[in-house]
Amino acid sequence: MIRGSTELVAIVGSPIAQVKSPENFNTWFANNNCNIAMLPIDLHEAALGSFADSLRGWQNLRGCVVTVPYKQALANCLDGLSARAAALGSVNVIRREPGGRLLGDNVDGAGFLGAARKHGFEPAGKRALVVGCGGVGSAISYALGEAGIASITLHDPSAARLGALCELLGRAFPGLGISTQVSGLEDFDLVANASPVGMGTSAELPLSAALLATLQPDTLVADVVTSPEITPLLHRARQVGCAIQTGPEMAFAQLGHLGAFMGVTPLEI
Ligand code: NAD
């Protein structure tokens, strides 16, 4: 129950009804006897600046998770950013410090890697293909770079997105091999779809049938799409005998990172 003494965290985006964080966090708070609650906020874009100002003055609020479409816009409204959030130009979590300072981080990549490690994937020295170079694809690629991946191949129909991510990774990780050419999937330890392809009932695949015919059973295949849980790509990978990582696994692995940054849960929950 929310009481006068309850401390708050929030999740902001638009729309907001589809997000799972409030039920995940509020269940954890209740099970662990924490007098904390998460509120969902569907915010109009025009209110973003005044929202950030309100967060600074909101004294019983510990932090705020940020979701689509405000990850980039809110990064520009804060008082400090982690190195990875600054490099990516996007935040998915904000901590309100006791004096009202707002600090941002982006734990999308950490969540992805946490889930991948549960499948026994250790990035150091490995080769990865990341399909989709938007917000989430960039965060995953950056986390792979930080974790010492040997080479990364990127694919995106948007030349601007592809170019921007190549430049970002090249600047941040000078020793990383970066390619944009995919002729087969045989050499990849990890194939990750970080695009919305396969969402809903589209039945679309993010890679061509010819490329998918080269997929090997020792490759970990991951998808960020949360609905359906088993996307057409993951269904195909299962048929080949690959280990698969779902979008909900990535989302769940992020909870501890989000909560720990806001100071309301341990890292491992
Ligand atoms: P975004 O719009 O920033 O980026 C999507 C990228 O995919 C764009 O660069 C676009 O050009 C690219 N793309 C589109 N069609 C493509 C194709 N056929 N092949 C390759 N690339 C293609 O979106 P985002 O914020 O990065 O989100 C991407 C997906 O991740 C969404 O479906 C979102 O719901 C999901 N997501 C999942 C989690 C999770 O925890 N599982 C977290 C955040 C977002």
Describe the structure.
The structure is a single chain. With 269 residues, the chain is an alpha/beta fold. The protein has two domains: 100 residues, Leucine Dehydrogenase, chain A, domain 1 (Rossmann fold), CATH 3.40.50; 141 residues, Rossmann fold (3-Layer(aba) Sandwich). It has ten helices and twelve strands. The protein has a six-stranded mixed beta sheet with strand order 2-1-3-5-6-4. Strands 9-8-7-10-11-12 form a six-stranded parallel beta sheet, sandwiched between helices. α7 links the parallel β8 and β9. The longest helix is centred in the C-terminal third of the chain and has 16 residues. The chain binds nicotinamide-adenine-dinucleotide. The site of nicotinamide-adenine-dinucleotide has 27 residues, from α5, α6 and α10. Pathway: Metabolic intermediate biosynthesis; chorismate biosynthesis; chorismate from D-erythrose 4-phosphate and phosphoenolpyruvate: step 4/7. One of its GO terms (molecular function) is shikimate 3-dehydrogenase (NADP+) activity. It comes from Pseudomonas putida (Arthrobacter siderocapsulatus). This is Shikimate 5-dehydrogenase.
